[in-house]
Amino acid sequence: MKELTYHRADDAASAVALVAGDPDARFLGGGTNLVDHLKLGVTSPTTLVDVSRLPLDEVTELPDGGLRIGTNVRNSDLAAHRAVRRGWPVVARALLAGASGQIRNQATTGGNLLQRTRCVYFQDVTTPCNKRDPGTGCSAIGGYGRYNAVLGASEACVTTHPSDLAVALAAVDATVVVLGQDGERRVPMSDFHRLPGDRPEQDTTLAHGELVTAVELPATGTARRSTYRKARDRASYAFALVSVAAGLELDDDGRVRDVRIAWGGVAHKPWRAEVAEAELRGRFVSEESVRAAAEAELAAAVTDEQTAYKVPMVRNLTALTLTGLAEGATR
Amino acid sequence: MTADQVTPEPLRSTSSIGTSLLRRDGVEKVTGDATYAVEHPVTGPAGEPPLHAWLVTSTVARGRVVAVDATAALAHAGVVSVVDHTSAPRLADTSDRELAILQDDAIAFRGQIVAIVLAETSESAREGAALVHVEQEAEPHAAAFQEDSPTYAPESVNGGSETDTLDGDPDEALARALVTVDATYTTPHEHNNPMEPHAATALWDGERLTLHDSTQGPRPVRGTLAPMLGLAEEQVRVLAPYVGGGFGSKGLPHAPEMAVALAAMTVPGQPVRLAVTRQQMFALTGYRTPTRSHVRLGAHPDGRLEALRHDAVTQSSRVKEFAEQAAVPARVMYAAPHRATTHRVAELDVPVPSWMRAPGEMPGMYAQEVAVDELALHAGLDPVALRVRNEPDVDPDTGNPWGNRRLVECLRRGAERFGWADRPTGARATVDGEWWVGTGVAASTYPMLWMPGNIARVRSLDGGRYAVAIAATDIGTGARTVLTQIAADALGCPPEAIDLDMADSDLPFGSVAGGSSGTTSWGTAIVAAAQQFRADHGEHPDPGVETTAASGQYADMDGHALHSFGAVFCEARVHRYTGEVRVPRLLGVYSVGRVVNPRTARSQLLGGLVMGLSAALHEEGWRDPRTGHTVTQDLATYHVAAHADVRDIDAEWLDDIDELSTPMGSRGIGEIGIVGTAAAVANATYHATGVRVRDLPLTADHFLE
Ligand SMILES: Cc1cc2nc3c(=O)[nH]c(=O)nc-3n(C[C@H](O)[C@H](O)[C@H](O)COP(=O)(O)OP(=O)(O)OC[C@H]3O[C@@H](n4cnc5c(N)ncnc54)[C@H](O)[C@@H]3O)c2cc1C
Ligand code: SF4
Question: 0.90 cut: is pTM over it?
Answer without folding.
Answer: yes
